[in-house]
Amino acid sequence: MSSASVSTAPQDEAKRIVFDDPHGAAGNMQEAEVTRVRSLLGAWRWTLVVATAATILLCINQQFSLRFFVGYTQLNTEYFYLLIALMLPFTFLIFPGTPRAPLNRIPWYDLLCFVVTFAAALVLMSNVRKAAEAGWEFGGAPNSVTAAGLVMWVMLMEALRRTGGWSLLLSVLPFTVYPLFAESSWLGPFRGTQSTLEQATAYHVLSGESLLGIPIQAFADTVIGFLVFGTALMMTGAGKFFINLAFALCGTFRGGAAKVCIFASGLLGMMSGSIISNVLTAGTMTIPVMKKSGFRASYAGAIEACASTGAVLAPPVMGATAFVIAQFLNVSYADVAIAAIIPAVLYYIGLFMQVDSYAARHGLKGIPRAELPRVMDTIKDGWYYVFVIALLIVMLLYFKRESHAPFYATALLLVLNQLFSKDTRWTVATIGKFLEVNGRTFVELVGILAGCGLLIGAFSMTGVVSSLANDLLRIAGDNPFLLLGMCALTSLILGLGLTTTACYIFLAILVAPALEKLGLNRMAVHMFIFYWGMLSSITPPVAIASFAAAGIAGSPAMKTGWESMWVGSIIYFIPFFFVLNPALVLQGPSPYLAGLGLMALAAFGTLFICGGIQGYQPFVGDLRGAGALEWPIRVLLVIGGFVVATPGGGIMPLSQMQVTLLGLAILVPTVLLALLLVRRQTMVPDGLRVP
Asked: Domain map of the chain by residue range?
């Protein structure tokens, strides 16, 4: 089913999709991929399936030390190159080189790129052990290895263009060749140690700091397992379970269809870690019901886009960038997931409050109980998902085995699914589809992560990062607020043209060291960069999540994008909250107690921010009743709520008590005035009321 067909489907068909389609989630995930890539058929499809199976088995062998290679201990670098050899060549088969390239056949030049990339990867893999022993990454590599490295460099840039687009290539390529002229005077603060072409090539393809650096290490160590788990979860009918559970729990509330959307997309996103897959999976089910409930099409699309954006923010399974953050900080993925809990909770609280105020202002009711699934029936159908997720969380947080956790959880899921589910029981064909879906995801991620790894290598080679951090501090005058503002703006601009992971890598290298030198918490700084980099998914002119949701809703794309910014506006504030006080990312002394207290204050402030944005303040009423003072009151509510939610102390000149009292000094008279005006308006007879 295409997104276009969903937007015009009859409402009874929409309801059938929501409650009765056990394969909808996996189907939509797969279709989301097929619409923008070449579908491999016949022998090529089975080649991808076999390569994917080999990739997963190699990962299991490496993580569990199973010693598949009897009598031979594989180096990590050899393992990384094996994964690259298996996945990177498929970039040229799956992603067409030009918009006019045929989708029903593979052109000869794509086959040539496939063979050349595979051969270069094998040559480098066979020599990487010797390179480590002889120090070839710093020079002296044989001509054959240097030639293979040059070929790999060129193929990586083309793979980056095909997977991430011209904007990503043009952002990364200049930096990868930058070491060749790093001593040029015109580079200013970017001047560094210069390398020859042979030295740069050897460092890029043989060292553990570039192609084989942090991004590929994150992919090989943890991302593969979590992608496998997320795909297995969707293909065993978890989409149906989570969405039906959301309808059963939230459907009858005011604006229930939108609250279902937020709850369901949040649950799905916690498991999938993919924004677009989340939109196309949950959106086809929730957007038609929201429109039927009275939400205008663009607003329904905006709610889905914002709710799905939380997919990369909410643990336990976050987007690929979260795994890269763990590698950058040299901490476990569980630490990153724990740090993400309070910001994710605040984000979804803000969305719920926005929707509730909007529904109250426009008189939108919930869905009749008779039209909703029953809670007990839903739990009876999918109770085993709870055990699977519990196992994943225990393995992550208690045993600290993030590389093992998704494989154990996937194994338990498949066993329980085969035993207790008739509708989603797997067959040989299902296994083939499962491997194919994973393979396309692996190929895309390897193309992006490997190419972005060269970015890290370039700055490592030239040694410019430390001096650049000092230059940024000098420009900002050691003012943390100015530097944070510069970082936020840069992140947002880069995010418009780059993937979230690429944007994060850029700024983690260039800006994060400067922020850390000001004494800001490292985890909070990296989460700040991450948040601002992914905001492009709901921020025009890119707003890819909003545009995908607009296609399902049948609404104008740009209008849906602007609505998404309005609905998800709380997300623009949250990064500043946790960078001001790292207790919100559970860092520092007594982080849990302090974090919960700050979260309560932030949630209280968010209540007024959302009331001001939507024009309906809970416990006060519709602010249109304030007449000419409606907008001044709304502005004051947003300002007062923001002040109350802002942490004090640290780099703030005011203590927490002073900040809170200042916020209350704004809010209390504003709320009392609004209450007086709204109540007085409701007491006036209809015939005398001012329109």
From this structure: 37-207, 463-537, 589-686
